[in-house]
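The authors assume throughout that readers already know how a fold can be written as discrete tokens. For illustration, here is how one protein appears when written out as sequence plus structure tokens:
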Amino acid sequence: MRCRLQVLIALLAMGLAVAGHAPPARAAELPPRLAPAPDLELHMVGLTGGFYANAKQALGRSRVHVDRPGKRVVLCLNGYLATSWKVSVAADTTLARVYVGGQYLQSVAGLPENTLKVYAYYDARNPQLWLSPASQLETRDFRIAVRELHAATGLLLASFHGAESLDEDRPITVNRVEDNPAFSLDYPQPKPAADLPAVSFSALHLPVLDWKYGTHTSYAVSYGEFTLQGPRADTLLPIALDIKTLLHDEPGKRFLGLIRDHCHVVEPFEHAAANRVIEPAAFSEERIHCLTLDPKRQRLVAWPYVTNHPGPVAISLTNGQVATLHRWPKNEQRDYLQPVALAYAPEKDVIYGISQYLGPTQNHAGVPPAMLCEIDAETGELRQTAPLGNLIMPKTSVHNLLDRRQLISVGEHLVYLTTDDQFDVGAQLGGSSIFLIDPNTATVTLTHREPHSAPNKSNP
């Protein structure tokens, strides 16, 4: 009964009101942008948990104290869960404007009289502005929020304070300016070619998918040679398939391709129908999320679309037999690792994976950070993980078509190629990127960014 009561309280907080506050009326129009001035600053506080983050916090408030003497402050309060904010302002600090962003219902108390409030969280249904919930710097939602705030205010961030949840007895104090390159609109920037190693490899060139109202239009896919600065256009060969991963099985003299969520034997450069490399019955209840080729053991290592039994499977290239490898453990919060791309590294005889933690905790945390996984190639056991702190992950979608990412082992390096098809942000962040990853140190370097181009809907 007690658990049911706690769930009911949480649901009421999400869908009804916070501390008796009804959702605000829609704004007829946004206030004008502000002219940048030396005394004008934009600060953001991002929160994952909130007013009903847990049962003990049900009657608390998330406190923020603004202490910037001689400054006019534009404050953005950004919460994912329903949050009751309490703001206090120090003497000689002027609160020029407050933007209240995020996902669920937000309320604000303690503001000086006549302070302009702009409600821009999702549940406010403000047709003019929705500020994405962001509580971590190196996330996609933070990048969107930076751009949205700049478009609305004309200002760049002066500081950011992110947290899982706030304690009423330990408020966040906004009292400084931070010099952080992540506050720039064009962050991150590719590293100059002169400062990068000479690396070449073959990969798919995957232009964007145009998702609208649940449908998609396929753009031309091609395959060819790449450097860290992008594809060599004169080597690209068109492929007549909506393919996400292409692997060359040299002993078998064939190509294996991941199309939607099944593996096929493909003739990628000819107009020919694809045939399954695996009998359909083998994956009648599972779909492949990502895979790599282990030529030493003559098998594919794949990650199926499952959540109740997370772990890789091995698929024999000889007879298509499927074997479950090591089951990966969940963490203390029962979150599990979900790889989005795999690559076999022959030099070390290991498999690397780019992964995200998903599960009960991460459902409230926006886009989880990226993790580099080292996997035993023989057993599938997870050897170790390392956070890829400055790798901004796209949102993992239930639509496998959106998860088009390639991880390629090149000597001592890993190359990670992403194609961002998220329709909800469109041209703001979309495009293709190339990252160089050092698996020994888990450092990530952006080497190339290709913006969205005009669609080529004449797919061969």
User: Anything to note?
Assistant: The longest strand covers residues 336-345. The mean pLDDT is 76.
